Predict the 3D structure of the following.
Amino acid sequence: MTQQVRVAVVGATGAVGKAMIATLLRREFPFSSLKLLASSRSAGTQVAVADQLIEVQEATPDAFADVDVALFSAGGTVSIQLAPEAVKRGALVIDNTAAFRMDPDVPLIVPEVNPEHMHGHKGIIANPNCSTIQMLVALKPLHDAYRVRRIVVSTYQAASGAGERAIAELTEQTRAQVMGEPVVASVMPVAKLSRHYPLAGNVLAQIDVFEPNGYTREEMKMVNETHKILGDKTIGVTPTCVRVPVVYGHSEAVYIETERPFEMADVRARLEAFPGILVQDDPEQQVYPQPLAAAGRFEVFVGRLRRDLTQPTGLSMWVVSDNIVKGAAWNAVQIAELWLQRGRVGG
Amino acid sequence: MTQQVRVAVVGATGAVGKAMIATLLRREFPFSSLKLLASSRSAGTQVAVADQLIEVQEATPDAFADVDVALFSAGGTVSIQLAPEAVKRGALVIDNTAAFRMDPDVPLIVPEVNPEHMHGHKGIIANPNCSTIQMLVALKPLHDAYRVRRIVVSTYQAASGAGERAIAELTEQTRAQVMGEPVVASVMPVAKLSRHYPLAGNVLAQIDVFEPNGYTREEMKMVNETHKILGDKTIGVTPTCVRVPVVYGHSEAVYIETERPFEMADVRARLEAFPGILVQDDPEQQVYPQPLAAAGRFEVFVGRLRRDLTQPTGLSMWVVSDNIVKGAAWNAVQIAELWLQRGRVGG
């Protein structure tokens, strides 16, 4: 069977890696073999995949010798070291880290948004940042129709975006808070930095490190990745990225201004017709997207659609999606599916 | 002693009422008597005030006969019924509900922002919405210097803004979540509406009821109260109001565009010099405002100051304050202090 694919997941024991495995199974992705790779620290761990246990192997260059598609999510350093080795051995790398996203030779793909960018790849395709993916799925049909000129976005991002340790930390902090015990922070907002703050019962206006311009790296990802994916550097992007005490599901308050005028009925129709979007917008029935309800789902949920009160070409919306699923694992698997559908299109 | 004031707190058993009592004590407000009033349901309850117990009395028109200042926070219906009765009996009413805020005869006061509006009062002074208060304290020095033309604001609002029952609900939901028990919702987002959703581990893009234009009433308060307090209806306000699982402290991602250009050093200096603001803005040291740290404080905390990447007159900031303290109780007591300082200025 020509569709049979030898798949490797790099970072198989992490939050996204586990979700990648689960997504391959949910999608019945036609893999003939599934290799689970991780750092030497995690090698030897047994991971349950459907009804079998697979042992995690150490990610080394030669581990990619018999791999067609390698899904990377083990941090930027691992991707920089091993992605070229995997490509050298004939694998397509779909990389979930930020390592190659802004590399002009690496397409940055949201399958609903810019599948046409895939053709130029040289073995590595990058998966965008979670916050960017869901925002651009929601904006693409509107950009096509009315041309987006300005984006002001505030995010409400889940702890899982910071990985397994952050999920464990929020869970433990919440337990301690309920029990009246001291709340300890050693992972969030950024594990490698010196200061840590509780997320339980709190909100942290820092995701990733600060850049010299006063924006965080997460915020700059939303700016730069939006420009690359939409192929338009003139779009003004004004992001504020914030962590909230939610485990799964990023929410975003997105305000846009468009070049061309729009009718609200047309906005809604275009969003409803767009693949990957589920419109949940009925104020009278109190229907709007919520992260708790979006957890585990593939879709990007859009609601709270309303025209701006003073700018006729201004539109506000509320965009929610599971950051680990559509924001990472599902988007990566979706890229692999697209690659298969297009006959394993090479670079 | 002419400074001795007979004070009443209406809604003394609620979240804001209790904070009003605590604030009067913290400020050593010169009250000669303190009358605690509430609905007949709460009458008879004993409330500890410093080292004495005060019995809550039923709020009736005649309860205001010997009152100089009545702080109301028992819901709009109670204010509509009893505020005029209190005024008739010679009391100054400082009303924390939305009942009179947009009444042209009622000044809507943030003492740091528009104290001059107090002079026109006819016995009732309104306390603005919590989200509006903290935003306008942060924007006033910038509006004075550069004239604010556009505001795009996304809020991260605490459960306490929805009252005692919402605090209890979030606490109970969090406990149930930790214990692995079913999470029940019957208060939030809006107690009187038919649908309720969990706030624990979730984010709710609805505060108060929806208006026919698709904005919530909370969002429209931010628009209309901003126009009234700054005395400028031409400012474009684009709000998204969101409840997050935090008990005390609202956070706001505020983006503004100004008419006149600004230097960042001047922005910072003006904010630092403005009464009621504490600037917490040192990205290198990971210093920025957080609701958990702002709880119980009088100040409005401002940080994450950064010029927009594409709009030279665009500025982003992060504004945090305790919604029950500066957003309600302290702002009300501050109005009473101002009234005293100005010689009990009448209408």
Summary: The domain at 132-323 of chain B is CATH 3.30.360.10 (Dihydrodipicolinate Reductase; domain 2).
